[in-house]
Hints:
This protein is α/β, with parallel strands linked by helices. Helix content is 41%, strand content 15%. It contains 11 helices and 10 strands. A 6-stranded parallel sheet has the order 2-1-3-4-5-9, with helices on both faces. A two-stranded parallel sheet has the order 6-8. The longest helix is centred in the N-terminal third of the chain and has 24 residues, at 71-94. The protein is globular and about 60 Å long. The mean pLDDT is 94.
Amino acid sequence: MNKKIVLAGGxxxxxxxxxxxxxxxxxxxxxxxxxxxxxxxxxxxxxxxxLEGADLLLNxxxxxxxxxxxxxxxxxxxxxxxxxxxxxxELLLTCGNPxxxxxxxxxxxxYRHAEDRPMTEEHGEIGTGFSVxxxxxxxxxxxxxxxxxTRQAALRIAIVLGKDGGVMRPFRNLAAFGLGGALGPGNxxxxxxxxEDVYRIVMYIKDHQELEGVFNCAAPHPVPNREFMHQLRxxxxxxxxLPSPNWLLEAGAFIIRTETELIxxxxxxxxxxxxxxxxxxxYNLIEEALQDICK
Length: 295
Protein backbone atom coordinates (compact mmCIF):
# COMPACT_ATOMS: atom_id res chain seq x y z
CA MET A 1 0.00 0.00 0.00
CA ASN A 2 1.30 3.44 -0.93
CA LYS A 3 2.19 5.77 1.89
CA LYS A 4 0.30 9.06 1.58
CA ILE A 5 0.73 12.55 3.00
CA VAL A 6 -1.70 15.43 2.60
CA LEU A 7 -0.17 18.92 2.40
CA ALA A 8 -2.69 21.71 2.82
CA GLY A 9 -1.33 24.98 1.47
CA GLY A 10 1.59 23.07 0.04
CA UNK A 11 2.65 25.33 -2.84
CA UNK A 12 4.68 27.94 -0.94
CA UNK A 13 8.36 27.90 -0.04
CA UNK A 14 8.05 25.44 2.85
CA UNK A 15 5.39 23.29 1.22
CA UNK A 16 7.37 22.90 -1.99
CA UNK A 17 10.44 21.83 -0.03
CA UNK A 18 8.40 19.35 2.00
CA UNK A 19 6.70 17.90 -1.07
CA UNK A 20 10.09 17.12 -2.57
CA UNK A 21 11.40 15.56 0.63
CA UNK A 22 8.26 13.46 1.18
CA UNK A 23 8.29 12.25 -2.43
CA UNK A 24 11.95 11.25 -2.06
CA UNK A 25 10.90 9.10 0.91
CA UNK A 26 8.38 7.26 -1.22
CA UNK A 27 5.22 9.08 -0.14
CA UNK A 28 2.37 9.96 -2.43
CA UNK A 29 1.83 13.68 -1.79
CA UNK A 30 -1.64 15.17 -2.11
CA UNK A 31 -1.66 18.99 -2.13
CA UNK A 32 -4.65 21.17 -1.27
CA UNK A 33 -4.26 24.62 -2.79
CA UNK A 34 -6.00 27.50 -4.50
CA UNK A 35 -3.55 27.10 -7.36
CA UNK A 36 -4.59 25.05 -10.42
CA UNK A 37 -3.40 21.47 -10.69
CA UNK A 38 -4.08 20.56 -7.06
CA UNK A 39 -7.10 19.67 -4.92
CA UNK A 40 -9.18 22.83 -4.62
CA UNK A 41 -10.36 24.04 -1.22
CA UNK A 42 -13.89 24.00 -2.63
CA UNK A 43 -13.59 20.29 -3.54
CA UNK A 44 -14.74 18.85 -0.22
CA UNK A 45 -15.16 15.35 -1.63
CA UNK A 46 -11.66 15.47 -3.07
CA UNK A 47 -10.16 16.63 0.23
CA UNK A 48 -11.97 13.90 2.17
CA UNK A 49 -10.79 11.28 -0.33
CA UNK A 50 -7.21 12.48 0.12
CA LEU A 51 -7.50 12.37 3.92
CA GLU A 52 -8.85 8.81 4.00
CA GLY A 53 -5.98 6.46 4.75
CA ALA A 54 -3.32 9.19 4.81
CA ASP A 55 -0.33 8.82 7.14
CA LEU A 56 -0.19 12.52 7.94
CA LEU A 57 -2.06 15.78 7.43
CA LEU A 58 0.18 18.83 7.48
CA ASN A 59 -1.59 22.18 7.22
CA UNK A 60 0.56 25.11 6.11
CA UNK A 61 -2.26 27.17 4.59
CA UNK A 62 -2.42 30.92 5.11
CA UNK A 63 -2.00 34.17 3.23
CA UNK A 64 1.54 35.53 3.42
CA UNK A 65 2.10 38.12 6.16
CA UNK A 66 4.56 39.90 3.86
CA UNK A 67 2.07 42.65 3.04
CA UNK A 68 0.64 45.88 4.44
CA UNK A 69 -1.72 45.33 7.36
CA UNK A 70 -4.77 47.20 6.11
CA UNK A 71 -8.25 45.91 6.91
CA UNK A 72 -8.70 43.71 3.84
CA UNK A 73 -5.32 42.02 4.20
CA UNK A 74 -5.86 41.57 7.93
CA UNK A 75 -9.13 39.77 7.30
CA UNK A 76 -7.57 37.55 4.63
CA UNK A 77 -4.60 36.71 6.87
CA UNK A 78 -6.94 35.65 9.68
CA UNK A 79 -9.57 33.76 7.69
CA UNK A 80 -7.08 31.99 5.41
CA UNK A 81 -5.72 30.35 8.57
CA UNK A 82 -8.75 29.82 10.77
CA UNK A 83 -11.30 28.81 8.11
CA UNK A 84 -9.03 26.30 6.37
CA UNK A 85 -8.18 24.79 9.76
CA UNK A 86 -11.85 24.47 10.68
CA UNK A 87 -12.68 22.94 7.30
CA UNK A 88 -9.98 20.30 7.69
CA UNK A 89 -11.11 19.48 11.22
CA GLU A 90 -14.72 19.06 10.14
CA LEU A 91 -13.73 16.77 7.28
CA LEU A 92 -11.49 14.68 9.55
CA LEU A 93 -14.50 14.02 11.76
CA THR A 94 -16.30 12.45 8.78
CA CYS A 95 -13.42 10.14 7.78
CA GLY A 96 -13.64 6.43 8.49
CA ASN A 97 -9.85 6.08 8.37
CA PRO A 98 -8.40 9.51 9.15
CA UNK A 99 -4.66 10.20 9.36
CA UNK A 100 -3.24 9.33 12.79
CA UNK A 101 -1.50 12.72 13.01
CA UNK A 102 -2.58 16.27 12.14
CA UNK A 103 0.17 18.89 12.30
CA UNK A 104 -1.01 22.47 11.99
CA UNK A 105 1.24 25.41 11.37
CA UNK A 106 1.32 28.23 13.90
CA UNK A 107 3.87 30.98 14.51
CA UNK A 108 6.56 31.85 17.02
CA UNK A 109 5.39 35.46 16.85
CA UNK A 110 2.63 34.43 19.27
CA TYR A 111 5.05 35.38 22.07
CA ARG A 112 5.69 38.93 23.20
CA HIS A 113 8.56 41.14 22.03
CA ALA A 114 11.35 39.70 24.20
CA GLU A 115 14.78 41.20 24.82
CA ASP A 116 15.06 40.09 28.45
CA ARG A 117 14.67 36.30 28.32
CA PRO A 118 13.77 33.44 25.98
CA MET A 119 10.23 32.16 25.48
CA THR A 120 9.51 28.44 25.95
CA GLU A 121 6.25 26.54 25.50
CA GLU A 122 5.78 26.32 29.26
CA HIS A 123 7.06 29.72 30.41
CA GLY A 124 6.64 31.90 27.34
CA GLU A 125 4.43 34.99 27.62
CA ILE A 126 1.83 35.56 24.92
CA GLY A 127 2.11 38.97 23.29
CA THR A 128 -0.46 41.49 22.06
CA GLY A 129 -1.40 43.00 18.73
CA PHE A 130 -2.77 41.85 15.39
CA SER A 131 -0.24 39.09 14.64
CA VAL A 132 -0.66 37.58 18.11
CA UNK A 133 -4.46 37.73 17.81
CA UNK A 134 -4.24 35.80 14.54
CA UNK A 135 -1.95 33.19 16.08
CA UNK A 136 -4.29 32.70 19.03
CA UNK A 137 -7.35 32.37 16.79
CA UNK A 138 -5.45 29.91 14.58
CA UNK A 139 -4.53 27.67 17.50
CA UNK A 140 -8.01 28.00 19.03
CA UNK A 141 -9.54 26.78 15.75
CA UNK A 142 -7.10 23.86 15.66
CA UNK A 143 -7.52 22.70 19.24
CA UNK A 144 -11.30 23.16 19.20
CA UNK A 145 -11.52 19.71 17.61
CA UNK A 146 -11.50 16.51 19.63
CA UNK A 147 -10.44 13.77 17.24
CA UNK A 148 -10.43 10.28 18.77
CA UNK A 149 -8.33 8.74 15.99
CA THR A 150 -5.99 11.65 15.26
CA ARG A 151 -3.15 13.08 17.33
CA GLN A 152 -2.73 16.88 17.06
CA ALA A 153 0.31 19.15 17.31
CA ALA A 154 0.66 22.87 16.58
CA LEU A 155 4.04 24.02 15.28
CA ARG A 156 5.03 27.51 16.43
CA ILE A 157 7.46 28.06 13.60
CA ALA A 158 10.19 30.70 13.77
CA ILE A 159 11.57 32.48 10.67
CA VAL A 160 12.39 29.68 8.22
CA LEU A 161 15.66 29.90 6.29
CA GLY A 162 16.31 28.03 3.06
CA LYS A 163 17.87 28.38 -0.37
CA ASP A 164 14.82 28.74 -2.53
CA GLY A 165 12.53 31.30 -0.96
CA GLY A 166 11.23 32.76 2.25
CA VAL A 167 13.06 35.66 3.87
CA MET A 168 16.49 34.82 2.48
CA ARG A 169 15.91 36.53 -0.85
CA PRO A 170 15.33 40.05 0.56
CA PHE A 171 18.06 39.61 3.19
CA ARG A 172 20.57 38.50 0.55
CA ASN A 173 19.59 41.41 -1.67
CA LEU A 174 20.29 43.84 1.19
CA ALA A 175 23.73 42.32 1.75
CA ALA A 176 24.49 42.22 -1.98
CA PHE A 177 23.89 45.98 -2.27
CA GLY A 178 25.96 46.88 0.77
CA LEU A 179 23.02 47.31 3.16
CA GLY A 180 23.71 44.21 5.22
CA GLY A 181 24.30 45.98 8.50
CA ALA A 182 22.08 45.98 11.57
CA LEU A 183 18.40 46.51 10.82
CA GLY A 184 16.87 49.00 13.24
CA PRO A 185 18.47 48.84 16.71
CA GLY A 186 20.15 45.52 15.87
CA ASN A 187 19.69 44.04 19.34
CA UNK A 188 16.26 42.53 18.60
CA UNK A 189 16.52 38.74 18.80
CA UNK A 190 16.24 36.74 15.60
CA UNK A 191 14.74 33.28 16.13
CA UNK A 192 15.25 31.15 13.06
CA UNK A 193 15.17 27.55 11.85
CA UNK A 194 16.55 25.84 8.75
CA UNK A 195 13.81 24.44 6.49
CA GLU A 196 15.44 21.00 6.62
CA ASP A 197 15.10 20.98 10.39
CA VAL A 198 11.41 21.90 10.12
CA TYR A 199 10.97 18.84 7.89
CA ARG A 200 12.92 16.72 10.38
CA ILE A 201 10.76 18.02 13.25
CA VAL A 202 7.64 16.97 11.35
CA MET A 203 9.02 13.47 10.82
CA TYR A 204 10.21 13.25 14.43
CA ILE A 205 6.77 14.08 15.82
CA LYS A 206 5.25 11.62 13.34
CA ASP A 207 7.51 8.84 14.58
CA HIS A 208 7.02 9.57 18.30
CA GLN A 209 3.39 8.84 19.06
CA GLU A 210 3.61 10.26 22.57
CA LEU A 211 4.13 13.81 21.26
CA GLU A 212 1.20 16.20 20.92
CA GLY A 213 0.24 19.75 21.82
CA VAL A 214 2.33 22.86 21.11
CA PHE A 215 5.96 22.84 19.93
CA ASN A 216 8.36 25.72 19.30
CA CYS A 217 10.00 25.06 15.94
CA ALA A 218 13.09 27.21 16.29
CA ALA A 219 16.81 26.50 16.32
CA PRO A 220 18.20 26.38 19.87
CA HIS A 221 20.57 29.34 19.38
CA PRO A 222 18.77 32.52 18.28
CA VAL A 223 20.97 35.57 17.72
CA PRO A 224 20.58 39.34 17.75
CA ASN A 225 19.74 40.82 14.37
CA ARG A 226 23.17 42.47 14.27
CA GLU A 227 24.86 39.06 14.56
CA PHE A 228 22.59 37.50 11.96
CA MET A 229 23.45 40.20 9.44
CA HIS A 230 27.16 39.84 10.26
CA GLN A 231 27.05 36.09 9.67
CA LEU A 232 25.10 36.62 6.43
CA ARG A 233 27.77 39.00 5.13
CA UNK A 234 30.47 36.46 6.04
CA UNK A 235 28.61 33.69 4.21
CA UNK A 236 28.25 35.92 1.15
CA UNK A 237 31.82 37.32 1.34
CA UNK A 238 30.54 40.88 1.70
CA UNK A 239 32.73 43.14 3.83
CA UNK A 240 30.60 46.26 3.82
CA UNK A 241 27.21 46.35 5.50
CA LEU A 242 25.63 49.73 6.15
CA PRO A 243 23.02 49.79 8.95
CA SER A 244 19.38 50.66 8.27
CA PRO A 245 17.76 52.90 10.93
CA ASN A 246 14.10 52.54 11.82
CA TRP A 247 12.96 55.50 9.73
CA LEU A 248 14.57 54.04 6.62
CA LEU A 249 13.00 50.64 7.28
CA GLU A 250 9.58 52.24 7.69
CA ALA A 251 9.94 54.10 4.40
CA GLY A 252 11.20 50.99 2.61
CA ALA A 253 8.41 48.84 4.03
CA PHE A 254 5.83 51.32 2.77
CA ILE A 255 7.35 51.30 -0.71
CA ILE A 256 7.51 47.50 -1.04
CA ARG A 257 4.14 47.04 0.69
CA THR A 258 5.14 45.16 3.82
CA GLU A 259 5.44 45.76 7.58
CA THR A 260 8.54 46.43 9.72
CA GLU A 261 7.23 44.08 12.42
CA LEU A 262 8.74 41.24 10.39
CA ILE A 263 12.19 42.75 11.04
CA UNK A 264 11.92 44.75 14.26
CA UNK A 265 10.01 42.44 16.61
CA UNK A 266 12.37 40.67 19.00
CA UNK A 267 11.56 36.96 18.74
CA UNK A 268 13.51 35.01 21.36
CA UNK A 269 12.12 31.49 21.16
CA UNK A 270 13.66 28.24 22.44
CA UNK A 271 12.56 24.70 21.37
CA UNK A 272 12.44 23.39 24.92
CA UNK A 273 9.95 20.55 24.39
CA UNK A 274 11.70 19.17 21.30
CA UNK A 275 15.09 19.18 22.98
CA UNK A 276 13.72 17.64 26.17
CA UNK A 277 12.27 14.79 24.12
CA UNK A 278 15.59 14.17 22.37
CA UNK A 279 15.31 15.91 19.02
CA UNK A 280 18.72 16.91 17.65
CA UNK A 281 18.95 19.83 15.23
CA UNK A 282 21.11 19.45 12.15
CA TYR A 283 21.65 23.22 12.02
CA ASN A 284 22.21 24.48 15.57
CA LEU A 285 24.17 27.65 14.76
CA ILE A 286 23.27 30.46 12.40
CA GLU A 287 26.68 30.30 10.69
CA GLU A 288 26.11 26.63 9.84
CA ALA A 289 22.70 27.34 8.36
CA LEU A 290 23.89 30.34 6.32
CA GLN A 291 26.95 28.51 5.00
CA ASP A 292 24.65 25.77 3.73
CA ILE A 293 22.18 28.21 2.21
CA CYS A 294 24.72 30.54 0.61
CA LYS A 295 27.27 28.00 -0.62
